[in-house]
# Entry
Amino acid sequence: MSTNKKEAANIVIFGGKGDLAWRKLVPAFYNLFINGYLPKKFAIYGVHYEKMGEKDYEKHLLEGINTFSRSGKANKSEWKKFAEHVFYFEGDFTADDTYRRLSENLNKNDKVWKTRGVRMFYYSVAPRFIEPISLLLSKYELAGDITADRIVIEKPFGSDLHTARELNQLLTKHFREKQIYRIDHYLGKETVQNLMTFRFANIVYESIWHHNYIEHVQITVAESIGVGGRGNYYEQAGALKDMIQNHLLQLLCVTAMEPPVSLDEEDIRNKKVDVLKAVRPLTKADIAKNVIRGQYGEGTVNGKKQAAYRNEKNVNPKSGTETFVSLKLFIDNWRWQGVPFYLRTGKCLDKTTSLIVIQFKPVPHNLFDSKIMADSRPNQLIISIQPEMETTLLFHAKEPGVRLQIRPVEMDFTYKESYDTPVPEAYETLLLEVLEGDAAMFMRADQVEEAWKVVTPIMEAWKKETPPRFPNYEPGSWGPRSSEALIKPQGCSWTLLPENEIAKNTIRKK
Ligand code: BG6
# Structure
């Protein structure tokens, strides 16, 4: 039977009744369906151990779509058509019988469809199930076609370098590397995907994108929410493993990578791995000076009361887990020699915002004294990944008038003003890429391992040190004070979008 990538797909979600499937995966498949991106013939199986009737499952998924889908409540007739393709599949992830029955179902679909469809196996499960699922998929030859069958794995990819290597070995025992899609949803965000276009489709930016012109780079992923009900997981992870090891290092890769030879997945992935390989290993002294950790105490965020991290559900009242990290890294290659990269992430911060800030060097010889140029802030390119989705270039201009007065102004590109088209959710883009077999935006085994290598010295140093006095920052702040001090020697501070800064000084002109 031929494989028709465009025409047919069997999609199996292990953990089909879990939170991720409910909030993200099924709404993403639904939006792909209503926008015509799913193959004509497809079936989605939600595998879960609980007993549940088909109708109840549908009701549950519909509620998820109505609550979380970016396109709002489902349209009745579209939902009905979509629901015909979705099935609840009761089964234990560790039992042979589940895979025997799955195999029968998928083979039957292929027969009816008269084509061997693509198969996507999504592991939306706790890490302990990865091994039995892989073993049984392989035993029952469910993913035996290496060009058409793919598995999708969610983070965490191990809990350190050693376990990540073990996980990679386990997966490659059962599947080819080409079949393994390690998902980091940050790489599916529209603005992150656009970053490569921005850099490599324009000559203006790329020609100044190196140490001759760039003073430093800041990458912030801040959240105003706390850990909520995820205390159990978060206690083991902390901000370093939950965010820095994956999302922030991925953003670093896209910001700092060399231009790839082509858009081929391996060409892109090779360049990203090169960035991580070039990160200067952090010494004990660097970690003591340049890696800041924090934990939120009790307070308020956006007018709402917030419990201290140690009082969150399933959190040890004496927990030493960090909910904030900021750090300074260097990339030892030609392009980035001497340019510090500052990374910062945390929960319960003043606002939810993800930004990449490229701060340029000052002009080599300044003609304008402080009377003419009261605000001599440097040129900055601020890329807001979320929520604003905009790119702002800050530069200096002469104010209209007979006397020479110079002020910073901004040039904006915003998605809101530039496009009418709705922006897809990260999961929509990434799931479609899996169906189409494009792994460029997914992490290869070596990339995951290199990312672990970057954070390993920090994990080891923290294991030996007594943690700082936690809690050490208030909810609604920007983390511990020492995080500001980290960037101060650079003669600057953490940057936000101009709305928050320049507008206050009424300098912003529109
Ligand atoms: C997840 C982390 O990977 O990313 C969460 O586990 C975090 O702790 C989330 O809240 C942030 O993602 P987003 O898309 O909301 O910025």
Q: What stands out?
A: The CA atoms of residues 187 and 441 lie 6 Å apart. The longest helix spans residues 231-256. Residues 185, 223, 242 surround 6-O-phosphono-beta-D-glucopyranose (CB under 6 Å). The chain has two domains: 8-154, 188-361+414-424+445-498.
